[in-house]
């Protein structure tokens, strides 16, 4: 009988009527938790916690984000408390157990739970038992407060600042600063030009300057590879693994919207995202190519004229766990204690080496930046070390990007101090950057004459035009052939 009542108590969750804002946030947080915990248990996550929360279908993102993250943070304690007071005893299998976790979080650690039907009623019915179980847990762990209890299992307190980059293709740094500083505490970064540090809790996703592409939500470490590449404004530049395109549009801004950037991406689904990023940023010097970087014909124009390559290939992403909020996942603890997916790392490193070696074989390239958001030596110093001989034989040497940056490569070979590392912290993703550079002699340069502005204009129009003007089709075909890129690969 009791079980029936409790099962019925969940019924309003299925067909919510006149739900309060807090009930909606609780229900949404519960559903997100269900996805997050299920995917984490199966190691099948397709999106980070953050990107799940920023799906368009989630209403009241701020409240839902807070509830989801806080419940995840307290989840081990919540489960222990539930176990200790035998919360689930005599209960039928509950469909929305994750909503229950959220409600218990609110009762024990958040704002007082308001009596209402559904899951809230169920939790409030057992309020005293839950509170008593928590008190017993404090005694058992020999701690006097919740913070100490939490610290016994989890020391991460979350980020203090977040970063936002001014897209100088759309707005000047001074103007952006002027528009923000009255409402938001803004500090200009001392290393990355036009990067603002703002308090982590600032909600900017819906800010008009973000919506119109004037401000780009981009972490500080992620800005370093493009800075290290430092292309000249009239160069042809290749972003080899470009989606979602944050570094592509940063390169476009560094080149003042001039020159030509070829943004290559293999994954069909991510191409759309890349196109959207480029469009929103107003980066008219970017041409998106849907292609496997490893199959590009380096001897065909304009690839034969590429002077700088940014290679930011797929990697384990082990440096981004804090930003992605992965540290809140149950699986994170085991990874930190060495549970690295070795076969996956090996596969990634193999691809990374191949891609880097290929980048170093472009005939006119003078600067190649290799970057990852991984902390693993295997994807970083080891990859660089494995191509050093090849690089030298092609006339490259390691450059020394951002000399003012203190953290450098792991000292596993002579010259590794030229590599740049960002150690992951609460405010910054872990990152790795290597710069290869060479000066080409006149013999190679003869084959690599600067593209004259009219020719470049033609290529840009040809590669990227979305204009509906009726052009001469055969003329276009001819130009495409000359550029060595199939029409279906151009967006
Ligand atoms: C780390 S992400 C790049 C992030 C991007 N540089 C940015 O800052 O927004 C790596 C990208 O490389 C793409 N990729 C992987 N293999 C590729 C290949 N062979 N050719 C082109 N793109 C590839 C992946 O689909 C993914 O979108």
From TrEMBL:
- Residue spans of biased composition, Basic residues class: 467-478
Q: Where is this region: Disordered?
A: 450-478
- Residues of the SAM-dependent MTase RsmB/NOP-type domain: 152-439
The family classification in the record reads: Belongs to the class I-like SAM-binding methyltransferase superfamily. RsmB/NOP family.
The reaction(s) this protein catalyses: a cytidine in 25S rRNA + S-adenosyl-L-methionine = a 5-methylcytidine in 25S rRNA + S-adenosyl-L-homocysteine + H(+)
The name this protein goes by in its record:
SAM-dependent MTase RsmB/NOP-type domain-containing protein
Q: Which Gene3D superfamilies match?
A: Vaccinia Virus protein VP39
Where does this protein hold S-adenosyl-L-methionine? 241-247, 265, 292, 312
Q: Which GO terms describe its molecular function?
A: RNA binding; RNA methyltransferase activity
Report which superkingdom the organism of origin falls in: Eukaryota
Q: Which UniProt keywords apply?
A: Methyltransferase, RNA-binding, S-adenosyl-L-methionine, Transferase
Q: Which organism is it from?
A: Ceratopteris richardii (Triangle waterfern)
Q: Name one Pfam family in it.
A: Methyltr_RsmB-F
One GO BP annotation of this record: rRNA base methylation
- GO cellular component terms attached to this protein's record: nucleolus
Q: Where is the active site?
A: 373
Q: Where is the composition biased (Polar residues)?
A: 450-466
């Amino acid at each position: 009988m009791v079980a029936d009542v409790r099962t019925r108590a969940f019924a309003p969750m299925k067909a919510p009527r006149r739900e309060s804002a807090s009930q909606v946030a609780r229900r949404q947080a519960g559903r997100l938790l269900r996805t997050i915990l299920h995917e984490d248990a199966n190691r099948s996550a397709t999106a980070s916690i953050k990107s799940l929360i920023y799906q368009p279908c989630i209403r009241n993102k701020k409240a839902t984000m807070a509830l989801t993250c806080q419940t995840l943070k307290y989840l081990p304690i919540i489960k222990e408390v539930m176990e200790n007071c035998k919360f689930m005893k005599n209960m039928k299998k509950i469909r929305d157990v994750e909503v229950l976790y959220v409600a218990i979080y609110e009762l024990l650690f958040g704002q007082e739970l308001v009596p209402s039907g559904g899951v809230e009623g169920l939790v409030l019915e057992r309020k005293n038992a839950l509170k008593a179980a928590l008190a017993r847990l404090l005694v058992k762990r020999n701690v006097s407060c919740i913070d100490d209890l939490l610290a016994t299992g989890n020391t991460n307190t979350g980020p203090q600042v977040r970063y936002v980059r001014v897209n100088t293709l759309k707005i000047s740094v001074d103007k952006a600063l002027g528009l923000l500083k009255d409402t938001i505490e803004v500090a200009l970064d001392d290393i990355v030009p036009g990067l603002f540090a703002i308090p982590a809790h600032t909600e900017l996703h819906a800010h008009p300057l973000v919506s119109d592409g004037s401000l780009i939500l981009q972490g500080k470490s992620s800005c370093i590879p493009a800075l290290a590449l430092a292309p000249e404004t009239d160069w042809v530049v290749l972003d080899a693994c470009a989606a979602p395109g944050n570094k592509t549009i940063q390169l476009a801004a560094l080149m003042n919207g001039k020159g030509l950037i070829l943004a290559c991406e293999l994954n069909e689904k991510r191409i759309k995202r890349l196109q959207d990023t480029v469009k929103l940023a107003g980066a008219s010097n970017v041409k998106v190519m849907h292609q496997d970087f490893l199959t590009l014909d380096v001897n065909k124009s304009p690839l034969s004229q590429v002077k700088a390559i940014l290679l930011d290939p797929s990697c384990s992403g082990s440096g981004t766990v804090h930003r992605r909020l992965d540290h809140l996942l149950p699986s994170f603890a085991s990874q930190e204690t060495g549970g690295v997916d070795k076969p996956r790392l090996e596969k990634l490193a193999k691809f990374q080496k191949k891609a880097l070696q290929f980048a170093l074989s472009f005939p006119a390239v003078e600067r190649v930046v290799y970057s990852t958001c991984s902390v693993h030596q295997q994807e970083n110093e080891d990859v660089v070390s494995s191509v050093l001989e090849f690089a030298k034989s092609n006339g490259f040497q390691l450059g020394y990007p951002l000399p003012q940056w203190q953290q450098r490569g792991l000292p596993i070979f002579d010259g590794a101090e030229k590599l740049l590392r960002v150690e992951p912290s609460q405010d910054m993703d872990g990152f790795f950057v290597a710069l290869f550079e060479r000066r080409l002699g006149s013999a190679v340069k003869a084959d690599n004459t600067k593209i004259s502005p009219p020719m470049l204009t033609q290529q840009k129009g040809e590669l990227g035009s979305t204009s509906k003007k009726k052009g001469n089709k055969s003329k276009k075909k001819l130009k495409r052939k000359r550029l060595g890129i199939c029409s279906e690969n151009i967006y």
